Amino acid sequence: MAKITQLLFDCDNTLVMSEELAFEACADIANEILAKRDITDRYTGEQLIQDFVGQNFRGMMISLQGKYGFEMPKDEIEFYVKEEENQVIAKLEAKAVPCTGVMEELEKLQRSGQYDMAVVSSSALRRVRASIKKVNQDKYFKHDHVFSAATSLPKPTSKPDPAIYLYALEKLNKKATECVAIEDSRSGALSAIRAGIPVIAYVGSYPGDAKRAEMAGKLIELGAQVVMKDWSEFESCLKQIEDQPVERSEANL
Asked: Partners of 226 in the beta sheet?
C-alpha cells in the first residue's frame, strides 16, 4: 500500500471557481492582440475555455501565435502577461467563490493533520494567492506551499509540462509516490501524470452530467486513477489510491 503524505491541489476550478472569470478577461486581451495584427477572428471567454483550458496566459499566447502564424516580441508578451494578470485578479477579487463542497473537505483535512497540503497551479502566483484569499482558503496552505508554473520556476512554463510538479516535489522534499494530485483538466492531469504522481480527476466544476462524463472518460484515458464527481467523495477517492500498490505511480516515471 502507498503511504500518501502530501496532497497537491490544482487551483482553478478545483479549489476556486475561477476559470470562467479568468477567461472573460483573457478573451478581451486575446482579441486585442488579434485585432492589432488585422486578424478578424474573435474569442469569447467560453471559446477560450474550450480551446485552452488548463493553460496559463503565457501558454495561451504561444498557442495563439502558432494557430495564426505570427510572432510577438518578448516585451509585448510581458506587457500582456502583466495586464492579463491585473484584469483577472480584479475579477477574482470581486466574484470568485469556492468550488462546491471543497471548504468542508479542506477543513476536515486540516483537522486530521494526516496530510501536508499544497497548491500547484499553472496560473501566476499573484492570481493564485488572490483566488484562495478571496474564498478564505489561504488558511489551509502555508505561504511557501503555493506553486505557480508561470511564476515559481526559473523558466516560466505551463501545464501539461511536468516542471511545476517536479519543482513542488523538490521543494516539499517528497517522492511522487507519497503524493496525490487533484486536477480538473487534461493539461493539469497530464502534468502530474508525467511527474509520476497519481491523480484524482475532479469533474464537479463542469456543467451538466454529459460534460462531466465526457471529461471523466478523457482523464481516466490519460491515466488518472479515479474520478471524483463531488468533493464529498474525496475521502473515498483518496482511499482507493492509498489502497493501490506503490508500483502504480512508479510505472509512470
From this structure: 200
Sheet holding 146-148, edge to edge: 146-148, 116-121, 6-9, 179-183, 199-202, 226-228
Please report which helix (H) or strand (E) contains residue 80, including its range. helix 74-95
Query: Under CATH, which architecture does the 6-17+97-250 domain have?
Result: 3-Layer(aba) Sandwich (3.40)
DSSP string, 136-153: T-GGGS-GGGEEETTTTS
Give 195-248 as a DSSP string.
TT--EEEE-TTSSSHHHHHHHHHHHHHHT-SEEESSGGGHHHHHHHHHTS-THH
pLDDT digits (tens, 9 = 90+) for 45-61: 888 878 877 778 888 89
DSSP state, 16? Answer: E
pTM beyond cutoff 0.70: yes
- Domain chopping of the chain, boundaries: 6-17+97-250, 19-95
> Does an H or E element contain 128, and which?
helix 125-134
The pLDDT tens digits of the residues spanning 27-42 come to 999 999 999 999 999 9
Q: How far is CA 62 from the centre of its chain?
A: 18
Q: Is the pLDDT of residue 87 over 80?
A: yes
In terms of DSSP bridges, do strands 179-183 and 6-9 run parallel, antiparallel, or are they unpaired? parallel
